[in-house]
Amino acid sequence: MLAHSLFYKKLRSKNSIYFIFIIFCIALVAFNILYSQKYNKNMYGVMENNKDATITYLSHIWGGELFSLELERMRTEGREDILQGWEEVKSTNSKRIQNLEEASSLHPYSPELYYNLHLLYRESGDSKKSSENLRKAQAIDPSIK
Predict the structure, then answer these.
(1) What is the pLDDT of residue 132?
(2) 60-75: per-residue pLDDT in tens?
(3) What is the C-alpha to C-alpha distance for residues 145 and 141, in angstroms, rounded to an integer?
(4) What fold, for 93-138?
(5) With 92 labelled, which of 17, 41, 62, 63 sits at a CA distance of 20 to 30 A?
(6) pTM for the complete prediction?
């Protein structure tokens, strides 16, 4: 009788561990499914051709490979309002460049400043200054590609 009770006690403890593990897995899968359905709020505006949301979206992907494709798509769709809004955003880049240049002179060992300058110069078409700032960022932090 004692052997039977020990066997069932062990079986119950193993079952409770498996039960907790299964509940944990179900919760993890449910969280993953729910979170994967979440869109960035700007994406709804982009899908509805909202000008402000699309300009915000362009500023988020600016400097990446997708940016030039999206800008070309705006041109082919004839979205002059969005292109004009983007030009206004770009006009503020000269002020950003000036601010980052001042900051990099105050903090010469900050790779983030040089990398951001690289992106701004690349977008404005100055490849010489862009590559120069990228080299400075990589000299400070070799993990930057």
Answers:
(1) 92
(2) 777 677 888 888 888 9
(3) 9
(4) 1.25.40
(5) 41
(6) 0.46
Contact 100, 116 (CB under 8 A): yes
Q: What are the tens digits of pLDDT across the range 16-59? A: 777 788 889 899 998 888 877 766 666 777 788 888 888 888 87
Q: Are the C-beta atoms of 67 and 54 separated by less than 8 Å?
A: no
Kindly tell me the number of DSSP H helices and DSSP E strands found in the chain.
Answer: 8, 0
Which distant-in-sequence residues (6+ apart) come within 8 Å of 94 by Cβ? 124
Q: Percent of the chain having pLDDT more than 70?
A: 83
End-to-end alpha carbon distance in the chain: 69
Q: Name the token pair of 135.
A: 């080299």
The C-alpha atoms of residue 139 and residue 106 are separated, in whole angstroms, by 18
* Sequence ranges of the domains in the chain: 12-91, 93-138
